[in-house]
Design brief:
Blueprint (H helix, E strand, L loop, with lengths): L1 E5 L3 H4 L9 E20 L2 E8 L6 E11 L2 E10 L17 E7 L3 E9 L1 H8 L34 E12 L2 E8 L11 E10 L2 E11 L13 E12 L4 E10 L14 E13 L2 E13 L6 E13 L4 E12 L7 E2 L4 E2 L9 E10 L1
Antiparallel strand pairs: 1-2, 2-3, 2-4, 2-20, 4-5, 5-6, 6-7, 7-8, 8-9, 9-10, 10-11, 11-12, 12-13, 13-14, 14-15, 15-16, 16-17, 17-20, 18-19
């Protein structure tokens, strides 16, 4: 719903009369998502639970804009993640863990500052047939858990949601360019500082998106007083809409630094993921299918390898209410322990070489 607010007359505030002409619009929005699940972690470990955040992360948010004249607007976004099953805060128990930022912009460009999504995340969403929803999506790349940082740390949530960041976006025609820089932990040793350019271009049924991310190690990831080293990630995605179905192909790789860490036989030196998926629209519903191939480079012996299969059926009861069934399964070799990830929920295997699977049936309401 939208609440239009008029400024209090300038006479009362003691401000110039012209200030009273500005108007702002504030929108309250949110999602409530709940599912019942049958989970299998491997080696006979089974359980049945209720879970929140399978189709979309449950949330409450506020967004708004103010017309400043001459085509310029001020805008803001405040969004918290909530576990609808227990009421707890998500994203590391942060009050506004999903996004919180303020900015200025026009129809062509926008500059914003705060905690916000990275260009790398934007490309990863584009590269995922599910849009990073439901079980078996691109959260398996570890984009939300690339650092040991906890709530309140400058690198909590990197590489997806970036604290202390400045984002510039420029749009013309079917092209959108993005550039983000961030102060990370705001520490004297520059821990967590990053730069991340990216773009998305669409023309008719075809679209492509790419991003390159480069950051220094987080303070929480290295010994005290150590100088953080650079590490990087990249993602590329392609879409083509054939009409009866849309094909989505993606690539993602994260290459963490080997400096300041103790490398063991099980340390992942680099993670690489390839995926291919389809979106099939039906009457009042759609089918989403996807397969991911993941490799975890090791210092010796065989690399870890995993294959994730995902299938979802989503039915729209209305423009706001959806029913869904989502199934995913991971096959790990004896050097891998990749788990399953949905919009915000996750599920780990019982150990190396175990093959987790989940079947969820749920409902989502958007307001």
């Amino acid at each position: 719903m939208s609440i239009k607010k008029h400024l209090i007359p300038a006479l009362i505030l003691g401000l110039p009369a012209l200030a009273a002409q500005a108007q702002s619009t504030v929108t309250v929005f949110g999602v409530l998502d709940m599912a019942v699940e049958a989970q299998h972690a491997g080696s006979g470990v089974n359980r049945k639970i209720m879970d929140s955040g399978v189709g979309n992360g449950s949330r409450l948010g506020f967004r708004g804009t103010e017309d400043l004249g001459g085509g310029l607007s001020a805008n803001f976004w405040m969004e918290m993640g909530i576990g609808a099953d227990t009421g707890v805060l998500q994203q590391g128990n942060l009050a506004w863990g999903r996004q919180i930022w303020v900015g200025l912009g026009t129809k062509q460009w926008n500059v914003s500052a705060g905690r916000q999504y990275s260009p790398l995340w934007q490309t990863l969403i584009f590269s995922d047939a599910t849009g990073q929803t439901y079980w078996g999506n691109s959260n398996l790349t570890g984009i939300n858990v690339a650092s040991a940082a906890a709530a309140g740390d400058g690198t909590q949530g990197q590489m997806a949601r970036i604290n202390n960041s400045l984002l510039g976006t420029f749009t013309t025609g079917g092209f959108t360019g993005r550039l983000m820089v961030a102060a990370g932990d705001e520490a004297a040793n520059s821990g967590g500082r990053m730069i991340n350019p990216g773009f998305t271009w669409t023309s008719g049924p075809f679209g492509v998106s790419a991003s390159y991310y480069r950051s220094k190690q987080s303070v929480k990831d290295i010994p005290a007083n150590a100088g953080p080293a650079w590490q990087h990630a990249e993602s590329v995605g392609v879409q083509y809409d054939f009409g009866p179905a849309k094909l989505v192909v993606g690539y993602f790789a994260f290459d963490p630094s080997e400096t300041n860490i103790t490398v063991t036989a099980n340390t992942t030196l680099k993670q690489t993921n390839y995926n291919i998926g389809v979106q099939v629209p039906l009457q009042n519903s759609r089918v989403l299918a996807q397969i991911y191939s993941s490799r975890f480079d090791k210092i010796s012996g065989d690399d870890g390898r995993a294959t994730t299969l995902a299938l979802t059926y989503e039915y729209a009861m209305s423009k706001r209410t959806y029913l869904y069934g989502s199934y995913a399964h991971v096959t790990n070799n004896d050097r891998a322990n990749l788990g399953l990830f949905s919009a915000t929920a996750n599920f780990a295997p019982s150990g190396l070489g175990q093959d987790p699977s989940i079947l969820a049936v749920g409902v989502r309401h958007v307001f």
